[in-house]
């Protein structure tokens, strides 16, 4: 894994702290706030440019893995998210919605890196990526409206429009650019001049969005800093329960070791940049929801790094025969 990705949690924290200090010291709040959503939409377009839907066919060869991952991601996880929010964040409605947005959006990017580092089945992990994306695109408004309850306080039309803006627009733009580049210049040119440069833009755009968000909402963050601590217990429970559940399920189903690793990673990693973009678009007057979503990656990346070591497939030790 490149150094920039290994230090992602640190850079997110630095972007947040720098933005916070800038927002408190300089009058850039309104300008910075307007920069958040464009930066996130550009970032997601860059992410989706790297997505290869041709790998979907590989999922047909691992029906147990695919079925199990879909159940864990789109049935078990939403139920757990609702339980954690209702049980631990009853008095914090904005944090509850932030937690829900984070937990019901499976990762569509960096879990591939951790899957590869742990020697999981990267082909199947790649095949699951567009499935996870399309399902969260379809199901996310329902999750927020049904599970968010009174805490959501948003109508279905606004939420659906926000999801379409944040997910459908970047996705269709990326697919269109990939198709045009392949048709006119070929796959090699597309990889060299489109997808590779796009991959280098993802993290800088994420850091820029985090900086702008904290600069634009500096007063809100300072005022509600003690409240954000309430997110730590539910996040800790989630990042403990999901890997344990995925590992136990994989053993019960007797999945091959590389598929077991893939299942753990795809059910643990969350799509915080997408959730952040949706929060900014759907809840512009409730900045604490978006601020809450920055807490997720600060815990998630260290957890995934630890999991990489715990579930990594190690080659069997060989011993030489006696002479």
From TrEMBL:
Domain of life: Bacteria
UniProt GO cellular component terms: plasma membrane
Record keywords: Cell membrane, Membrane, Transmembrane, Transmembrane helix, Transport
Source species of the chain: Thermobifida fusca TM51
UniProt protein name: Arsenite efflux pump
Gene3D superfamilies membership: 1.20.1530.20
GO terms for MF: antimonite transmembrane transporter activity; antiporter activity; arsenite transmembrane transporter activity
Family from the record: Belongs to the arsenical resistance-3 (ACR3) (TC 2.A.59) family.
Residues in coiled coil: none
Cellular compartment(s): Cell membrane
Segments traversing the membrane: 33-53, 65-85, 97-117, 124-143, 163-181, 201-222, 228-249, 288-307
Keyword Transmembrane helix: yes
Its membrane topology: Multi-pass membrane protein
């Amino acid at each position: 894994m490149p150094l920039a990705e290994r230090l992602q949690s640190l850079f997110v924290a630095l972007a947040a702290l720098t933005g916070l200090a800038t927002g408190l010291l300089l009058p850039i709040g309104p300008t910075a706030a307007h920069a958040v959503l464009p930066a996130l939409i550009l970032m997601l377009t860059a992410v989706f440019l790297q997505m290869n839907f041709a790998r979907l066919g590989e999922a047909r060869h691992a029906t147990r893995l695919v079925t199990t991952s879909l159940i864990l991601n789109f049935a078990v996880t939403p139920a757990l998210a609702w339980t954690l929010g209702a049980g631990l964040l009853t008095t914090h409605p904005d944090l509850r919605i932030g937690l829900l947005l984070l937990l019901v959006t499976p990762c569509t990017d960096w879990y591939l890196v951790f899957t590869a580092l742990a020697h999981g089945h990267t082909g199947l992990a790649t095949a699951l990526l567009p499935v996870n994306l399309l399902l969260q695109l379809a199901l996310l408004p329902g999750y927020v409206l049904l599970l968010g309850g009174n805490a959501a306080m948003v109508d279905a039309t606004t939420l659906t429009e926000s999801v379409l803006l944040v997910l459908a627009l970047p996705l269709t733009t990326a697919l269109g650019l990939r198709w045009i580049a392949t048709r006119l210049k070929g796959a090699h040119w597309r990889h060299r001049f489109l997808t590779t440069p796009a991959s280098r833009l993802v993290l800088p755009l994420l850091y820029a969005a985090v900086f702008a968000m904290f600069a634009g909402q500096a007063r809100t963050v300072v005022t509600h800093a003690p409240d954000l601590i309430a997110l730590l217990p539910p996040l800790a429970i989630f990042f403990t329960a999901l890997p344990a559940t995925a590992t136990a399920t994989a053993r019960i189903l007797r999945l091959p070791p590389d598929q077991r690793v893939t299942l753990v990673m795809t059910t643990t990693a969350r799509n915080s940049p997408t959730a952040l973009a949706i929060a900014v678009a759907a809840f512009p007057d409730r900045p604490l929801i978006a601020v809450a979503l920055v807490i997720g990656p600060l815990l998630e990346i260290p957890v995934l790094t630890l999991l990489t070591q715990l579930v990594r497939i190690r080659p069997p030790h060989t011993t030489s025969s006696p002479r």
